[in-house]
Write a structure and sequence with these properties.
Blueprint: H1 16-32, H2 46-50, H3 55-61, E1 76-80, H4 87-99, H5 112-119, E2 125-128, H6 137-148, E3 158-162, H7 170-181, E4 187-193, H8 203-207, E5 210-213, H9 219-229, H10 235-244, H11 249-257, H12 259-274, H13 278-315, H14 324-372, H15 391-400, H16 403-419, H17 426-440
Parallel strand pairs: 1-4, 1-5, 2-3, 3-4
Helix pairs in contact: 4-5, 6-7, 9-10, 10-11, 11-12, 12-13, 12-14, 13-14, 13-17, 14-15, 14-16, 16-17
Bound molecules: zinc ion.
């Protein structure tokens, strides 16, 4: 596989790349013969389609096993994986491989199909992403279905990607189920969700999809991806971002492109340093809590304002004349609903931001543990550390705390992470974290 192949953008971890490569080959085998994608369940192998023996047997008999297994490909996929593991990156790379026009080397990375698919401008790829807390059934009916049932324009198939498919509400899930059960002839559906847990994703819908788990990638995978996406980066920059993001692709991207992301990380690591400074520790905790609220407000405000204006416009708020008063009264409930949704979304964004900070703090304690166990002690360059630029802080932690206290601190962070799921206020949560880290760190006992 060459570096330019779209498969180099997929993690090698967990066999993701191999599975999707096999699926792509099976799909292109069909494309090259003018066959549709749908109907996999009705034919057991390509050989049946062609009216000759057994495809797998044929594959092993032919030179180099050139006939792929038909069963490697299907029309509906569910990609799950932890935050930042690269579900949607993988989905897009897979889409490019399917839309590639080079049947002999699908996913070549060089053809028009591959390039426009990766850039998101290919007419046969549609990506559904939402800023909202749910994907309503309207989106499936009005936007997704009509698109999915059209035939491809230039490629051999169309690819529909739904990011955050966990946000499909019940009705929308049912509508998607119908689409998957009566599949369009030439459309591949890829749904991405953090988990396939029943509370996040419809069980019935899941049972109709091929499930691919995209695990947190190795640092080296992230470096490769960053360099593929941003040829202007130096190896060193990519390496740094991949290391400190600890395999979180979205964050690594943020670190190379956005000063704000780097600053946010510093704040979290400063929090960890304040644990041993009782005079200011609670101030730091309170400050971080306030900044979380401010940061989310800053990121969301303009989107929220635009949503409100759009809704008011569609409701005719501000219009005058007969009926306008009645319309205004009727619209109050709808506007309230939007505001409630926005509030929930802010809350979710705040939790996500705190979760990132907790991950950073945990990384620092892990580094201390590595140093204390001697694994990273004399490597000089800080090899193996998640935060090589905070090596001194990690060393200080390792010097102050025995290994069991470091472990206790890591457990404490996990405990506070679990609290994120409940409705505890940010200030309370970060106070709790500070207290627990101080107890684990035996602050004030010496
Ligand atoms: Zn190509």
């Amino acid at each position: 596989m060459s570096d330019s192949s779209v498969f180099s953008r997929m993690p090698e971890t967990g066999g993701v790349r191999e599975r999707l490569l096999a699926a792509t080959r099976a799909a292109h085998y069909r494309f090259a013969r003018g066959l549709a994608l749908a109907g996999y369940e009705r034919v057991s192998s390509l050989a049946d389609v062609q009216g000759s023996g057994n495809a797998e047997q044929e594959a092993s008999e032919s030179e180099g096993g050139e006939v792929p297994r038909d069963s490697d490909m299907t029309h509906a996929w569910l990609f799950t994986g932890p935050a930042g593991s690269g579900r949607s990156v993988t989905a897009k790379a897979f889409a490019a491989a399917l839309l590639c026009t080079n049947h002999d080397n699908p996913g070549c990375g060089g053809c028009e199909g591959c390039r426009t698919a990766l850039a998101g401008t290919h007419g046969d790829i549609k990506i559904i992403r939402t800023e909202g807390t749910i994907i309503p059934v309207k989106t499936v009916r009005d936007e997704i279905r009509p698109w999915a049932y059209k035939l491809p324009t230039t490629a051999d198939c169309r690819v529909l990607i739904i990011e955050d498919a966990d946000r499909l509400n019940d009705q929308a899930s049912n509508a998607m189920l119908k689409l998957v059960e009566e599949p369009p002839l030439r459309t591949v559906i890829i749904m991405c969700a953090p988990t396939a847990n029943p509370e996040d994703f419809s069980v019935t819908l899941r049972s109709r999809c091929r499930h691919v788990y995209v695990p947190t990638p190795h640092t080296e995978d992230v470096v490769q991806l960053l360099l593929a996406e941003r040829p202007d980066l130096t190896q060193e920059q990519a390496q740094w971002a991949a290391t400190v993001s600890n395999g979180h692709i979205g964050r690594a991207r943020g670190f190379v492109s956005d000063e704000g992301s780097r600053a946010w990380r510093s704040k979290a690591l400063d929090f960890a340093e304040a644990v041993f400074d009782p005079a200011k520790s609670y101030l730091v905790a309170r400050e971080l809590a306030n900044e979380v609220t401010g940061e989310v407000k800053r990121r969301m405000e303009s989107v929220e304002q635009a949503e409100l204006e759009k809704l008011e416009q569609s409701l005719g708020v501000g219009a005058s004349g007969k009926g306008a008063q009645a319309a205004l009264r009727g619209s109050k409930g709808v506007i309230k609903e939007l505001e409630e949704n926005q509030k929930r979304r802010r809350r979710r964004a705040e939790s996500d931001l705190i979760d990132l900070s907790l991950t950073d703090i945990m990384g620092l304690y892990r580094d201390a543990l590595l140093i204390s166990s001697g694994v990273a002690a004399d490597s000089g360059e800080g090899i193996g550390l998640i935060n090589p630029d905070r090596r001194r802080t990690a060393q200080e932690l390792a010097r102050r705390l025995p290994a069991e206290s470091l472990l206790e601190s890591i457990d404490a962070i996990s405990g506070v992470r679990d609290m994120l799921k409940s409705a505890v206020r940010n200030g309370v949560l970060l106070d709790e974290l500070m207290a627990k880290l101080q107890i684990a760190g035996q602050v004030g006992r010496r």
